[in-house]
Specification:
- The complex is a heterodimer of chains A (396) and B (379).
- With 396 residues, chain A is of the alpha+beta class.
- Helix content of chain A is 45%, strand content 14%.
- In chain A, the strands form three sheets. Chain A has a four-stranded mixed sheet with strand order 1-4-5-8. A four-stranded antiparallel sheet of chain A has the order 2-3-7-6, with no helix packed on it. A two-stranded antiparallel sheet of chain A has the order 9-10.
- In chain B, helix 4 crosses helix 7 (230-265), helix 8 runs antiparallel to helix 9 (309-338) and helix 9 (309-338) runs antiparallel to helix 11 (366-376).
- In chain B, the strands form three sheets. Chain B has a four-stranded antiparallel sheet, with no helix packed on it. Chain B has a three-stranded mixed sheet with strand order 1-4-5, with helices on one face.
- Classes of the chains: A alpha+beta (396), B alpha+beta (379).
């Protein structure tokens, strides 16, 4: 048992850190630190820098452009990226549809899509949730009817993150309405520019525009856009959701935010001295740091286990990472709110416009707090995670 | 980075788990509790036979030269079985003072007796008003003709009633809360002027309040520097805290297991109560609390090798906070999910709760350690 990183791992961390320091555009970093929205161009520009270095799809198998890093190296890369901070590669492409395509897709699909995902030639979005299908995802109703060499797709998806930027969508559609609910679902990919696709923004409580409703009205999709076998889509969806196991703790994000909290709390005054010197505040901060340290180690235990025993079936401990990780992220945004106190109030009406910086950075703190309520809801709500622990770990 | 046990560590775990499975079920524990002194000499003998009492000592001193991970393995197993025998007081604390501060003569005089199981130790540290401050020492050790004369009162000394040797903190210089001027002394429990009042503790262990009235010991009784013993005390107490973290993880793990088993078997409304989602989610939260505690117990264990004393202390404090919180939650919820039966002395589950509660209040509770981390800073 040895919790310290090896010399090689420490050298690797230095290499990664130096690369981020020298290559993340400073404006991108500053906006990340201040919790501002980035434009599509800013994100894509950074991801292409990353891809040029060969780190765009780092966790993929080498034959598809991955790095062949160990689980520990991958962990270090993610954490350093989050702590810099810089935008993580677009999960919908890199972590979700990419692995489904290289695992279940045919040769032609692999050759066409995988390099395009790596270079973000296509911006991908995810067509899973529907208005009537949230936690009960398998009840989804969007239909894909086979007509000759085409599917005709009708229905509605929702909570579609950054669909306003998207070129492509991967979509769970019902292809057999007579089968039991999990059995008749297929995994189909198609262009968001197709005729009959309508994207409508959903404004969230922070005033931001991250998510959308997407409507399909007789959208025609070539049958070769089916990934894997027809009616096996549920298996691929489970594979996809179980794939992203250790990233969900977002330890680096919380570490960076704690750094930010300390930085601001040493400037903002209360009773004539910095908030950081207030005993009550320090104790809350310490409690959060301890929880985060514990989470980091729990995450490393999962990572080490993967490294040793392979990435076989999903480790149910990842539900612990999701629950604690989201709670800690939320706590850090609460602590930021506490630091700025009454100056949380001013609202920047143009906050979502990446080019507009008329308001002080403090205007981003309350929206970030409001926005972070999502993290215990998405990716399988924390209540669903408790169901998973109940069944998979406790056997109840 | 590696979280797996080595082959030797795995064998150690099997050996202690096997021993306790054979000789330490809950009924046996009740029997041991009634023996003189409140624990079993026979079990202590078995621990000695398997070499477990000699684990942390250097091979030159007759031990096995094992490290913090081995102690963690043993303490976790002891916690799982709610073991009453004085491993913490004797091997971890008594042994710790000898290992880190003892002279060659002191080691030769005391370590063999610990290893072969013939002698046990107790740490007489707590005073009426010292609470968790290790530097708050009123008991005095005054020099007299090349010897020391100890006067003062110590409280809740774990294994104090049975121990052959007491390790006593006493002030050789300065005033009550000074960080310097504190010595650590080896005092035979039967020395003239030592009065012990023993009693059982809430968790079924035994402790004593001990009065020292003009107790004379030789100058060779001092462990380390008699005028600057605090760093040694802090180091050994940090090891004790770390060991208790592991013990608590064992107790929490078993408490959760027992509770989940109960949820599967206890029926109400015609179904196992474990089919109710409210109870399922509570159990899931207990699992989360357990895994966080396990991670921090490992963190504290690894911290034993940190070069920087402050970093080491902060790591242990952070672990004690997590263990305190997780232990309270798992302890309380184990009772709640058992319902009325959890309230009975007869059921084992409540005894985990009681031990976890006492661990929280030993060598600094959650608030005390949280304040330490808040003052020092962690990440």
């Amino acid at each position: 048992m040895d919790l310290a990183f090896s010399k090689e791992e420490i050298a690797f961390r230095e290499e990664v850190r130096a690369f981020f320091r020298d290559n993340v555009p400073p404006e991108t970093r500053r906006k990340m630190v201040e919790g501002r929205h980035l434009s599509k161009d800013e994100m894509v520009a950074w991801w292409r820098i990353l891809n040029k270095k060969g780190w765009g799809v780092s966790h993929w198998p080498k034959e598809y452009g991955g790095t062949g890093w160990s689980s520990v190296q991958q962990y270090i890369f993610n954490e350093e990226l989050q702590m810099h901070p810089a935008p993580a590669p677009l999960a919908f492409g890199v972590s979700m549809v990419g692995p489904v395509i290289y695992t279940f897709g045919n040769e032609k699909q692999k050759q066409y899509y995988l390099p395009r995902i790596a270079n973000v030639d296509d911006w991908w979005c995810q067509g899973f949730s529907e208005p009537g299908s949230g936690s009960d995802l398998a009840s989804l109703k969007t239909k894909a009817e086979r007509k000759g060499d085409k599917y005709i797709i009708n229905g509605q998806k929702t909570w579609t993150t950054l669909a306003q930027h998207a070129d492509m969508i991967f979509c769970l559609c019902r292809t057999d309405t007579s089968a039991k609910k999990q059995m008749g679902i297929s995994f189909i990919v198609f262009s968001m520019k197709s005729k009959g696709v309508t994207v409508r923004p959903i404004e969230t409580i922070d005033g931001g525009h991250e998510v959308n409703e997407v409507f399909f009205d007789d959208v025609e999709v070539p049958v070769e856009n089916l990934i894997g076998e027809e009616n096996k889509g549920w298996d691929y969806a489970k594979f996809l959701l179980g794939n992203e196991r250790t990233g969900i703790a977002r330890v680096g994000v919380s570490k960076e935010r704690l750094r930010r909290i300390k930085e601001l709390a040493s400037k903002v005054e209360q009773n004539g001295k910095p908030v950081l010197e207030d005993q009550g505040f320090r104790e809350k901060l310490a409690a959060c740091e301890i929880e985060l340290k514990a989470l980091e180690l729990t995450q490393l235990r999962v990572v080490a286990d993967e490294g040793k025993h392979g990435k076989g079936k999903p480790n149910p401990a990842s539900s612990v990472l999701k629950i604690k990780g989201s709670e800690i992220q939320q706590t850090t945004t609460e602590l930021l709110m506490e630091v700025i106190g009454p100056f949380a109030a001013p609202y920047d009406e143009h906050g979502d416009d990446a080019s507009n910086e008329t308001m002080d950075w403090t205007a981003q703190i309350a929206p970030s707090y409001f926005n972070n309520r999502k993290v215990s809801i998405y990716g399988g709500s924390n209540e669903i995670q408790r169901n998973i622990i109940t069944k998979a770990v406790l056997g109840l | 980075m590696d979280f797996d046990l080595s082959e030797e560590q795995r064998l150690l775990k099997e050996s202690i788990d096997g021993l306790l499975t054979d000789s330490y079920d809950f009924d046996a524990r009740k029997k041991y509790q009634k023996e003189k002194g409140g624990w079993s000499k026979a079990v202590w003998g078995k621990l000695a036979e398997q070499g477990l009492l000699g684990l942390p000592f250097a091979e030159a001193d007759g031990g096995f030269g094992a490290g913090a991970v081995e102690t963690m393995i043993v303490m976790e197993a002891l916690g799982r079985a709610l073991v009453l025998e004085p491993y913490l007081a004797t091997v971890v604390i008594g042994g710790g003072f000898l290992r880190h501060g003892g002279s060659a003569e002191q080691k030769a005089a005391h370590i063999p007796g610990i290893i072969d199981g013939s002698k046990t130790f107790a740490f007489a540290q707590l005073e009426k008003n010292s609470r968790y401050d290790l530097a708050d020492v009123s008991t005095t050790a005054k020099k007299k003709d090349g010897a020391y004369v100890i006067d003062g009162e110590k409280f809740v000394v774990l294994n104090g009633e049975n121990a052959d040797t007491l390790i006593v903190t006493a002030r050789t210089k300065g005033s009550r809360r000074d960080k310097t001027g504190i010595g650590v002394f080896l005092v035979p429990a039967n020395a003239k002027g030592v009065t012990r009042k023993g009693y059982p503790t809430q968790d079924g262990l035994h402790a004593a309040d001990i009065t020292f009235t003009g107790v004379e010991v030789g100058s060779d009784a001092a462990i380390g520097d008699p005028e600057n013993g605090l760093p040694l005390i802090e180091r050994v107490v940090d090891e004790a805290r770390t060991a208790m973290c592991a013990e608590a993880v064992g107790a929490m793990d078993e408490s959760l297991k027992t509770t989940v088993e109960y949820l599967k078997t206890r029926k109400q409304f015609g179904v196992p109560i474990g089919s109710f989602q409210t109870l399922q989610h509570r159990a899931a939260d207990m699992f989360v609390a357990l895994e966080q505690a396990r991670s921090m117990s490992m963190f504290a264990t690894m911290a034993a090798d940190f070069e920087d004393a402050k970093e080491r202390a902060t790591a242990v404090a952070a672990a004690k906070v997590q263990i305190g919180k997780s232990g309270k939650f798992i302890g309380q919820q184990s009772i709640q999910l058992h319902g009325g039966i959890g309230m009975t002395q007869e059921a084992k589950i409540g005894h985990y709760f009681k031990r976890l509660t006492m661990i929280e209040n030993t060598f600094g509770d959650t608030d005390y350690h949280l304040r330490r981390v808040a003052e020092g800073g962690l990440v």
